[in-house]
UniProtKB/TrEMBL annotation:
Protein name: Methylcobalamin:coenzyme M methyltransferase
Native species: Acetobacterium wieringae
Keywords: Methyltransferase, Transferase
Domain Uroporphyrinogen decarboxylase (URO-D): 109-294
Molecular function GO labels: methyltransferase activity; uroporphyrinogen decarboxylase activity
Database matches in InterPro entries: Methanogen_methyltrans, UROD/MetE-like_sf, Uroporphyrinogen_deCOase
Length: 325
Protein backbone atom coordinates (compact mmCIF):
# COMPACT_ATOMS: atom_id res chain seq x y z
CA UNK A 1 0.00 0.00 0.00
CA UNK A 2 1.34 3.42 -0.94
CA UNK A 3 1.92 6.06 1.70
CA UNK A 4 -0.33 9.11 1.65
CA UNK A 5 2.46 11.11 0.07
CA UNK A 6 3.27 8.45 -2.54
CA UNK A 7 -0.39 8.05 -3.44
CA UNK A 8 -0.71 11.79 -4.06
CA UNK A 9 2.33 11.86 -6.33
CA UNK A 10 1.05 8.89 -8.33
CA UNK A 11 -2.27 10.68 -8.74
CA UNK A 12 -0.59 13.88 -9.88
CA UNK A 13 1.62 12.21 -12.46
CA UNK A 14 -1.15 10.00 -13.83
CA UNK A 15 0.62 6.91 -12.56
CA UNK A 16 -0.77 4.11 -10.46
CA UNK A 17 -2.40 5.37 -7.26
CA UNK A 18 -3.97 2.57 -5.24
CA UNK A 19 -6.86 4.67 -3.90
CA UNK A 20 -8.41 8.12 -4.16
CA UNK A 21 -6.62 10.91 -2.35
CA UNK A 22 -8.91 11.95 0.49
CA UNK A 23 -9.30 15.70 0.44
CA UNK A 24 -6.48 17.43 2.33
CA UNK A 25 -4.99 14.26 3.81
CA UNK A 26 -1.60 14.77 2.13
CA UNK A 27 -0.81 18.11 3.79
CA UNK A 28 0.02 18.99 7.37
CA UNK A 29 -1.16 22.60 7.34
CA UNK A 30 0.81 25.13 9.37
CA UNK A 31 -1.85 27.66 10.28
CA UNK A 32 0.32 29.28 12.96
CA UNK A 33 2.11 31.40 10.34
CA UNK A 34 2.00 34.97 11.77
CA UNK A 35 0.12 36.56 8.88
CA UNK A 36 -1.73 39.04 11.08
CA UNK A 37 -5.08 37.49 10.21
CA UNK A 38 -7.87 37.81 12.77
CA UNK A 39 -11.07 35.79 13.08
CA UNK A 40 -13.40 37.66 15.42
CA UNK A 41 -16.86 36.13 15.39
CA UNK A 42 -19.64 38.63 16.01
CA UNK A 43 -17.32 41.64 15.83
CA UNK A 44 -16.16 44.50 13.60
CA UNK A 45 -12.44 45.31 13.52
CA UNK A 46 -9.57 46.77 11.48
CA UNK A 47 -6.69 44.58 10.37
CA UNK A 48 -2.99 45.47 10.01
CA UNK A 49 -3.61 46.98 6.55
CA UNK A 50 -6.40 49.19 7.91
CA UNK A 51 -9.12 47.11 6.23
CA UNK A 52 -12.39 46.98 8.17
CA UNK A 53 -13.88 43.52 8.69
CA UNK A 54 -17.18 42.22 10.00
CA UNK A 55 -18.23 38.74 11.05
CA UNK A 56 -21.94 38.97 11.84
CA UNK A 57 -23.37 36.49 14.31
CA UNK A 58 -25.02 33.58 12.58
CA UNK A 59 -22.87 33.88 9.43
CA UNK A 60 -20.32 31.31 8.32
CA UNK A 61 -17.52 33.77 7.70
CA UNK A 62 -16.21 37.30 7.76
CA UNK A 63 -16.00 39.88 4.98
CA UNK A 64 -14.43 43.31 4.36
CA UNK A 65 -16.73 46.33 4.43
CA UNK A 66 -16.30 49.55 2.46
CA UNK A 67 -19.44 51.64 2.97
CA UNK A 68 -19.54 55.04 4.70
CA UNK A 69 -15.95 55.86 3.90
CA UNK A 70 -14.49 52.70 5.44
CA UNK A 71 -12.52 51.66 2.34
CA UNK A 72 -8.78 52.18 2.74
CA UNK A 73 -8.46 53.39 -0.86
CA UNK A 74 -10.99 56.05 -1.80
CA UNK A 75 -9.14 57.15 -4.95
CA UNK A 76 -6.86 54.63 -6.67
CA UNK A 77 -4.63 57.43 -7.98
CA UNK A 78 -3.86 58.34 -4.34
CA UNK A 79 -3.19 54.79 -3.10
CA UNK A 80 0.41 55.54 -2.09
CA UNK A 81 -0.75 57.98 0.57
CA UNK A 82 -2.99 55.44 2.34
CA UNK A 83 -1.60 51.93 1.74
CA UNK A 84 1.37 51.01 3.92
CA UNK A 85 2.96 47.58 4.21
CA UNK A 86 2.48 46.10 7.68
CA UNK A 87 5.59 45.16 9.62
CA UNK A 88 6.57 41.53 9.03
CA UNK A 89 7.30 39.52 12.14
CA UNK A 90 10.86 38.21 12.01
CA UNK A 91 11.66 37.11 15.56
CA UNK A 92 11.88 33.44 16.48
CA UNK A 93 9.43 34.20 19.27
CA UNK A 94 6.73 35.37 16.85
CA UNK A 95 7.30 32.33 14.66
CA UNK A 96 7.77 29.83 17.50
CA UNK A 97 4.37 28.06 17.19
CA UNK A 98 4.76 27.73 13.42
CA UNK A 99 8.35 26.52 13.73
CA UNK A 100 7.34 23.92 16.32
CA UNK A 101 4.56 22.69 14.05
CA UNK A 102 6.85 22.54 11.00
CA UNK A 103 9.46 20.58 12.94
CA UNK A 104 6.84 18.07 14.13
CA UNK A 105 5.56 17.15 10.64
CA UNK A 106 6.26 13.61 9.47
CA UNK A 107 7.59 14.66 6.08
CA UNK A 108 7.84 11.08 4.85
CA UNK A 109 4.06 10.79 5.11
CA UNK A 110 2.77 14.34 4.48
CA UNK A 111 3.89 17.65 3.04
CA UNK A 112 4.72 20.35 5.56
CA UNK A 113 2.48 23.08 4.16
CA UNK A 114 2.61 26.79 4.94
CA UNK A 115 -0.52 28.89 4.60
CA UNK A 116 -0.78 32.30 2.93
CA UNK A 117 -3.82 34.53 2.48
CA UNK A 118 -5.17 36.76 1.11
CA UNK A 119 -3.72 36.77 -2.39
CA UNK A 120 -2.99 39.68 -4.69
CA UNK A 121 -6.38 39.97 -6.41
CA UNK A 122 -8.26 39.66 -3.11
CA UNK A 123 -6.08 42.34 -1.55
CA UNK A 124 -7.00 44.84 -4.27
CA UNK A 125 -10.71 44.54 -3.56
CA UNK A 126 -10.26 44.22 0.19
CA UNK A 127 -8.63 47.64 0.10
CA UNK A 128 -11.24 49.41 -2.04
CA UNK A 129 -14.25 47.19 -2.68
CA UNK A 130 -14.88 44.78 -5.55
CA UNK A 131 -16.63 47.23 -7.88
CA UNK A 132 -13.98 49.91 -7.45
CA UNK A 133 -11.14 47.42 -7.91
CA UNK A 134 -12.61 46.06 -11.13
CA UNK A 135 -13.33 49.53 -12.49
CA UNK A 136 -9.82 50.72 -11.62
CA UNK A 137 -8.34 48.02 -13.86
CA UNK A 138 -10.07 49.75 -16.77
CA UNK A 139 -9.98 53.39 -15.72
CA UNK A 140 -6.59 53.69 -13.97
CA UNK A 141 -4.48 50.73 -15.13
CA UNK A 142 -1.16 52.37 -14.31
CA UNK A 143 -2.13 53.08 -10.70
CA UNK A 144 -3.56 49.58 -10.32
CA UNK A 145 -0.36 48.06 -11.68
CA UNK A 146 1.65 50.06 -9.17
CA UNK A 147 -0.57 48.82 -6.34
CA UNK A 148 -0.32 45.21 -7.54
CA UNK A 149 3.47 45.50 -7.73
CA UNK A 150 3.55 46.90 -4.18
CA UNK A 151 1.42 44.05 -2.85
CA UNK A 152 3.63 41.57 -4.69
CA UNK A 153 6.75 43.05 -3.09
CA UNK A 154 5.17 42.63 0.34
CA UNK A 155 4.29 39.00 -0.30
CA UNK A 156 7.78 38.22 -1.55
CA UNK A 157 9.26 39.85 1.55
CA UNK A 158 6.97 37.77 3.76
CA UNK A 159 7.74 34.62 1.76
CA UNK A 160 11.47 35.09 2.31
CA UNK A 161 10.98 35.08 6.08
CA UNK A 162 8.58 32.15 5.95
CA UNK A 163 10.92 30.00 3.88
CA UNK A 164 13.81 30.70 6.23
CA UNK A 165 11.81 29.91 9.36
CA UNK A 166 9.76 26.89 8.24
CA UNK A 167 11.32 25.38 5.13
CA UNK A 168 7.89 24.21 3.93
CA UNK A 169 7.53 21.64 1.18
CA UNK A 170 4.18 22.98 0.00
CA UNK A 171 2.24 26.24 0.02
CA UNK A 172 -1.54 26.57 0.31
CA UNK A 173 -2.18 30.00 -1.16
CA UNK A 174 -5.61 31.64 -1.27
CA UNK A 175 -6.83 34.02 -3.97
CA UNK A 176 -10.38 33.66 -5.27
CA UNK A 177 -10.44 34.45 -8.98
CA UNK A 178 -14.09 33.91 -9.85
CA UNK A 179 -17.72 33.44 -8.94
CA UNK A 180 -19.48 30.11 -9.33
CA UNK A 181 -20.12 30.77 -13.03
CA UNK A 182 -17.39 33.10 -14.29
CA UNK A 183 -13.95 34.47 -13.60
CA UNK A 184 -14.05 37.96 -12.12
CA UNK A 185 -11.94 39.36 -14.95
CA UNK A 186 -11.21 38.28 -18.49
CA UNK A 187 -8.29 35.97 -19.23
CA UNK A 188 -6.59 38.79 -21.13
CA UNK A 189 -6.81 41.14 -18.18
CA UNK A 190 -5.72 38.40 -15.78
CA UNK A 191 -2.67 37.80 -17.96
CA UNK A 192 -1.80 41.48 -18.05
CA UNK A 193 -2.18 42.35 -14.38
CA UNK A 194 -1.79 39.19 -12.30
CA UNK A 195 0.24 36.59 -14.19
CA UNK A 196 3.55 38.50 -13.81
CA UNK A 197 3.04 38.80 -10.05
CA UNK A 198 2.19 35.15 -9.55
CA UNK A 199 5.10 34.06 -11.70
CA UNK A 200 7.42 35.96 -9.36
CA UNK A 201 5.77 34.67 -6.20
CA UNK A 202 5.45 31.02 -7.14
CA UNK A 203 8.89 30.88 -8.79
CA UNK A 204 10.39 32.27 -5.58
CA UNK A 205 8.80 29.44 -3.61
CA UNK A 206 9.97 26.82 -6.11
CA UNK A 207 13.49 28.26 -6.16
CA UNK A 208 13.62 27.93 -2.37
CA UNK A 209 12.59 24.31 -2.01
CA UNK A 210 8.80 24.23 -2.27
CA UNK A 211 7.64 21.13 -4.16
CA UNK A 212 3.89 21.80 -4.35
CA UNK A 213 2.05 25.02 -5.06
CA UNK A 214 -1.59 24.49 -4.06
CA UNK A 215 -3.72 27.44 -5.11
CA UNK A 216 -7.20 27.84 -3.66
CA UNK A 217 -9.92 29.48 -5.73
CA UNK A 218 -13.36 28.01 -5.04
CA UNK A 219 -14.88 29.20 -8.25
CA UNK A 220 -15.31 28.84 -11.95
CA UNK A 221 -11.89 29.50 -13.45
CA UNK A 222 -11.60 27.03 -16.32
CA UNK A 223 -10.67 29.93 -18.61
CA UNK A 224 -7.66 30.72 -16.40
CA UNK A 225 -6.17 27.22 -16.23
CA UNK A 226 -3.51 27.87 -18.90
CA UNK A 227 -2.29 30.76 -16.76
CA UNK A 228 -2.37 28.63 -13.62
CA UNK A 229 0.01 26.26 -15.37
CA UNK A 230 2.17 29.13 -16.61
CA UNK A 231 2.66 30.60 -13.12
CA UNK A 232 3.57 27.23 -11.61
CA UNK A 233 0.45 26.00 -9.82
CA UNK A 234 0.61 22.24 -9.23
CA UNK A 235 -2.85 21.76 -7.70
CA UNK A 236 -5.92 23.93 -8.21
CA UNK A 237 -7.86 23.45 -5.00
CA UNK A 238 -11.50 24.55 -4.96
CA UNK A 239 -12.43 23.64 -8.52
CA UNK A 240 -16.24 23.78 -8.52
CA UNK A 241 -18.39 21.42 -10.51
CA UNK A 242 -19.60 24.44 -12.48
CA UNK A 243 -16.34 23.90 -14.35
CA UNK A 244 -16.31 20.95 -16.74
CA UNK A 245 -13.84 19.01 -14.63
CA UNK A 246 -13.58 15.89 -16.83
CA UNK A 247 -12.82 18.12 -19.82
CA UNK A 248 -10.18 20.03 -17.85
CA UNK A 249 -8.55 16.78 -16.73
CA UNK A 250 -8.43 15.48 -20.29
CA UNK A 251 -6.98 18.72 -21.63
CA UNK A 252 -4.60 19.76 -18.86
CA UNK A 253 -4.22 16.82 -16.47
CA UNK A 254 -0.59 16.12 -17.30
CA UNK A 255 0.31 19.66 -16.22
CA UNK A 256 -1.97 20.40 -13.25
CA UNK A 257 -4.10 18.46 -10.75
CA UNK A 258 -7.67 19.43 -9.93
CA UNK A 259 -8.83 19.25 -6.31
CA UNK A 260 -12.50 19.76 -5.49
CA UNK A 261 -15.70 18.78 -7.23
CA UNK A 262 -17.69 18.67 -3.99
CA UNK A 263 -19.41 22.03 -3.71
CA UNK A 264 -19.23 22.89 0.00
CA UNK A 265 -22.57 24.67 -0.08
CA UNK A 266 -24.33 21.48 -1.14
CA UNK A 267 -22.62 19.05 1.25
CA UNK A 268 -21.76 21.17 4.31
CA UNK A 269 -25.04 22.80 5.34
CA UNK A 270 -27.37 22.87 8.36
CA UNK A 271 -28.99 19.47 8.81
CA UNK A 272 -26.79 17.91 6.10
CA UNK A 273 -27.90 14.47 4.99
CA UNK A 274 -25.70 11.43 4.46
CA UNK A 275 -27.65 10.37 1.38
CA UNK A 276 -26.95 13.70 -0.33
CA UNK A 277 -23.24 13.64 0.53
CA UNK A 278 -22.81 10.01 -0.51
CA UNK A 279 -24.48 10.62 -3.86
CA UNK A 280 -22.28 13.63 -4.60
CA UNK A 281 -19.09 11.80 -3.68
CA UNK A 282 -20.04 8.83 -5.86
CA UNK A 283 -20.93 11.01 -8.83
CA UNK A 284 -17.80 13.14 -8.46
CA UNK A 285 -15.39 10.22 -8.18
CA UNK A 286 -16.94 8.33 -11.09
CA UNK A 287 -17.08 11.39 -13.34
CA UNK A 288 -13.50 12.53 -12.76
CA UNK A 289 -11.53 9.35 -12.21
CA UNK A 290 -8.43 8.91 -10.09
CA UNK A 291 -5.70 10.49 -12.21
CA UNK A 292 -5.00 14.22 -11.91
CA UNK A 293 -8.02 14.59 -9.62
CA UNK A 294 -8.53 14.79 -5.85
CA UNK A 295 -12.11 14.63 -4.52
CA UNK A 296 -12.47 17.38 -1.94
CA UNK A 297 -14.81 20.00 -0.59
CA UNK A 298 -14.30 23.26 -2.41
CA UNK A 299 -13.74 25.16 0.85
CA UNK A 300 -10.21 26.43 1.19
CA UNK A 301 -9.27 24.77 4.48
CA UNK A 302 -9.67 21.26 5.89
CA UNK A 303 -12.48 22.44 8.14
CA UNK A 304 -16.23 21.99 8.24
CA UNK A 305 -19.06 24.33 9.12
CA UNK A 306 -21.28 21.57 10.46
CA UNK A 307 -20.07 18.67 12.56
CA UNK A 308 -19.33 15.36 10.93
CA UNK A 309 -19.21 16.44 7.29
CA UNK A 310 -15.48 15.94 6.67
CA UNK A 311 -15.34 12.53 8.33
CA UNK A 312 -18.34 11.31 6.36
CA UNK A 313 -16.95 12.59 3.05
CA UNK A 314 -13.73 10.71 3.79
CA UNK A 315 -15.75 7.59 4.59
CA UNK A 316 -17.57 7.88 1.27
CA UNK A 317 -14.28 8.39 -0.60
CA UNK A 318 -12.94 5.23 1.04
CA UNK A 319 -15.98 3.34 -0.23
CA UNK A 320 -15.39 4.66 -3.73
CA UNK A 321 -11.75 3.56 -3.56
CA UNK A 322 -12.91 0.02 -2.81
CA UNK A 323 -15.26 0.19 -5.78
CA UNK A 324 -13.02 1.89 -8.33
CA UNK A 325 -9.58 0.42 -7.58
Amino acid sequence: MLTIRENLLETMKGGNPDRFVKQYEFIDLIMEVPLGLEFNYGQTWKDHWGITWQWPEGQLGMFPVHHDGLAVIQDITEWKSVVKKPAIATSDEAWAPAIAHANAVDRKEKFATAFFAPGIFEMTHHLMGMENALMALYEEPEAMQELIDYLTEYELEFAAVMMEKLKPEAILHHDDWGSQISSFISPEMFEEFFVPSYKKIYQFYKDNGVELIIHHSDSYAANLVPYMIEVGIDIWQGVMNTNNIPELIEKYGEKITFMGGLHSGTVDYPGWEKEVVKKQVEETCKANGHKYFIPCQTSGLPIENFEGVIAYIDECIDEMSKEEF
